[in-house]
């Protein structure tokens, strides 16, 4: 049996880009990978490496959990939990700090970049030691597979190094995880400037991105007013037609139809109008269904039960592992 572990940081609201690029991919993995146990957690301890508003953080943790389920993550197949509810993460995080060298942390590209951004408010120590906590998240469950994006690969490499170092210093304790890059979900582009990625933090206007919580009418309008070129032919060419190509990517991701098939459907069109109109309906209806399920869950007991149960299951694994780790280190008073 293999084990897959991944964490999601609850910073920022979810966009259509997050959905197509990340959430849909998890759901596909859950439905296709066999003989694999899934542990997916909301990495709230990672969020506080930079300042957070506590009400907003609490809301985002619930929101993400509800959205993942609303988007198709099946709590019967996946152990879904909140990181801070399984204290062993922080304990093993500290032990990983005691396994890693400062130089290794300082070399992390993400730290170097984020440090610049945080200068004004002060760089927190945890921003530097963050990869030790991430290593703990992974090693606690003896994960074999860790699906992460490009920006996290360096942290994953460090995790492997720390696991190997610990194993050689104290005896075989942790599985050394493999980086697992699932077929990358398409990058969804900014609707007003399709040469940039869809990102709420870097967009100049709200029309540039679709939030999963946007009102459906607004979602449809955002699609209809997406920037496209003045030609009227619909075909996929990211260089010549970045706007239309982005819309085709969205169309394909939400309908699971191939781009060729969609292009064929519109080959005789002399304007973009009906293509955009139909896509607006597809995106609007797709997100509407997700929102419906999200609204049922967000203030429900069901959501709390899923997360309580998830934390309980995760704790069982985490405690068992920590007993072994502490004993390996000599942090165990009784034999
Ligand atoms: P920001 O608003 O700063 O751009 P973000 O939405 O990129 O933040 P992340 O936490 O980096 O936030 O992203 C979470 C996941 O969503 C990652 O796996 C990332 O690859 C994916 N993702 C984010 N934006 C897009 C996008 N436009 N297209 C495809 N995937 C995306
Ligand atoms: N660092 C990741 C989130 C994350 C994670 C993990 C991913 C925290 N712990 C463990 C995979 C496994 C991020 O910022 N996206």
What is this structure, in a nutshell?
This protein has 335 residues and is mainly alpha-helical.
Topology:
Blueprint lengths: L1 E7 L7 H17 L3 E7 L1 H4 L6 H17 L7 E5 L5 H10 L4 H5 L2 H10 L6 H15 L5 E3 L5 H18 L7 E3 L35 H9 L17 H14 L3 H7 L7 H26 L2 H29 L6
Helix pairs in contact: 3-12, 4-7, 4-13, 7-8, 9-12, 10-12
The chain binds adenosine-5'-triphosphate (ATP) and L-tryptophanamide (LTN).
Textual characterization of the structure:
This protein has 13 helices and 5 strands. With 335 residues, the protein is mostly helical. It folds into 2 domains: 2-183 and 300-329, HUPs (Rossmann fold), CATH 3.40.50.620; 206-295, Tyrosyl-Transfer RNA Synthetase. The strands form 2 sheets. It has a 3-stranded parallel sheet. A two-stranded parallel ribbon has the order 4-5. The mean pLDDT is 95. The site of L-tryptophanamide has 12 residues, from strand 1 and helix 7.
Order of secondary-structure elements? EHEHHEHHHHEHEHHHHH
The CATH superfamily of the largest domain appears as: HUPs
Strand line-up in the sheet with most strands? 1-2-3
The termini sit apart by 31 Å
Low-confidence stretches: none
Global Rg:
22 Å
**Portion of residues in helices?**
40-55%
The biggest sheet amounts to: 3 strands, parallel
Global morphology: elongated
Give the strand content.
5-15%
